Every structure is written in C-alpha cells, then in structure tokens.
C-alpha cells in the first residue's frame, strides 16, 4: 500500500516540476533518496543493499509515471498546486512509513519461522491494482515486489 501511495504522488511531482521548469530526472535527489534508504535500513537492521535496490526500483517506476504524466496535468489541479518541496516532504514521510512497516514485517516473520515466503506475483499484482497509473507497468511492479521481498527475505 505504501509503495503504491508513493507512486500515486508522482503525477503531482511531474506537474510541480513542469510548473517550475525543472527536468523530470533529478540525479542528485535520486542519489540522496537511495543513500538515505540504505542508511536507514542498515540502522534498522535491514539489508542496506536490498534497501538500495528497492529505492532504485521505486525511483525507476516513479520516473516512468512522471514521464507518462500528460504535460497539462498542472492545470488539472484545483487551486494552487503544491510545491515540489511540499510533495517531497510527503514522499519522505511515505518512505519513513515504509521503513517502519518493513521493520514490523521483519520482526513478525522472524517470530514465525513457519511464515510463508512472500508471493511476489501477488504483491506485484496488488501494486498494479493500487497504483493503476500510466507508465507503471508489470516490469516496474515486479521489480518493486521483488525488492520488497528481498529486503524481508534478507532479514530472516
């Protein structure tokens, strides 16, 4: 759910970037998000490399959604559209919530050695259903599902 919610924000990101005449791809921001994900995961006892790959998969999907967002999306927002800084604060909050959820899931899985492995196809299908957005396809959903499972499987 949190990974899907993060994607649902991406049309607003694209609109804010276009309104501010900024490029859709921001390598510095992407590097910061990836590094922060790895650092926070490591400090929480999760696999930093797996968390890095998860962040990379999320960014690739986010980029695809932004690129598929129509250029007139900014005019579809009622009132004053949110600033990119405001949207990024929301994205950071979603990333923090996802980390906390992964910690809880890890602890739950550790306490139940009989826990079934994550079903990646089902997780990918749920992501696609929850974030039915142009640009977000089965490949991106599969990559996010695989890396979410990887983070949790590495923690067992």
Write up this protein.
It is a single chain. With 156 residues, the chain is mostly helical. 71% of the residues lie in helices and 0% in strands. The protein contains seven helices and no strands. Helix 4 (48-68) runs antiparallel to helix 7 (138-154) and helix 5 crosses helix 7 (138-154). It is globular. The two termini are 22 Å apart. The relative contact order is 0.20.
The arrangement of helices and strands along the chain is HHHHHHH
Overall 3D shape? globular
User: How many E-type strands?
Assistant: 0
Instruction: Please tell me the overall pLDDT.
Output: 92
Rg calculated over all Cα atoms? 16 Å
Q: Which structural category fits the helices and strands?
A: mainly alpha
State the separation between the terminal residues, measured CA to CA: 22 Å
Fraction of helical residues = over 70%
Unreliable stretches (pLDDT < 50, length at least 5) are none
Give keywords:
single chain, 0% strand, mainly alpha, globular, 156 residues
Condensed summary:
This protein is mostly helical.
List the SSEs and their pairings.
Elements: H1 2-8, H2 10-19, H3 27-43, H4 48-68, H5 84-111, H6 120-130, H7 138-154
């Amino acid at each position: 759910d949190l990974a899907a919610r993060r994607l649902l924000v991406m049309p607003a990101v694209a609109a804010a970037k276009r309104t501010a005449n900024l490029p859709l791809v921001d390598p510095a921001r992407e590097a910061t998000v990836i590094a922060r994900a790895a650092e926070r995961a490591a400090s929480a006892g999760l696999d930093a490399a797996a968390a890095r790959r998860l962040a990379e998969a999320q960014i690739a999907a986010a980029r695809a959604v932004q690129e598929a967002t129509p250029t007139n999306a900014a005019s579809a927002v009622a009132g004053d559209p949110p600033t990119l800084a405001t949207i990024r604060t929301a994205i950071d909050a979603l990333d923090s919530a996802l980390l906390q959820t992964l910690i809880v899931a890890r602890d739950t899985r550790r306490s139940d050695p009989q826990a079934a492995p994550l079903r990646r196809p089902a997780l990918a299908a749920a992501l696609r259903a929850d974030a039915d957005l142009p640009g977000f396809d089965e490949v991106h959903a599969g990559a996010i599902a695989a890396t979410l499972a990887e983070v949790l499987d590495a923690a067992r």
